Amino acid sequence: MRAPVVLIGFGLGMIGGPLADMSLAKVPHEDAGSASGLFNTVMHLGIALGTALTALVFFRHHRRLTRRRPQPRRVPHRAVVGRRPPRPDVDPMFCLPKQANISAD
Hints:
The chain is mostly helical. The chain contains three helices and no strands. It has a domain at 38-70. The N and C termini lie far apart (79 Å).
C-alpha cells in the first residue's frame, strides 16, 4: 500500500511545478498575481472535490459490503458472566451502611 502512495506523491510533485509554469507562462506581468491566485484556488477546489467524491464512492461501497454480512448474535449478559449485574434496589449488598456503627456497651 505504501508503494502506490509514494509513487502518486512523487508523480504529483514532479508534475505540479511544470504545470503551474505552463499555465502562467503567457500571463502578463501585471496580472501574474491574480492568475496565480486563480490557479491555486482552482487547484485546491479540484483537490477538495476529488477527495469528497472519492470518500463518497468509498463509503457507499463500504456500506453496501457491510449490509450484506449477517450481524453477530448477541449473547445475553448472564451467559457471559454467570449472573446478572447487581441492581441497587434489589441486591442486599447495597442495603448495608457504608461504615459500620460500632458502639461499646
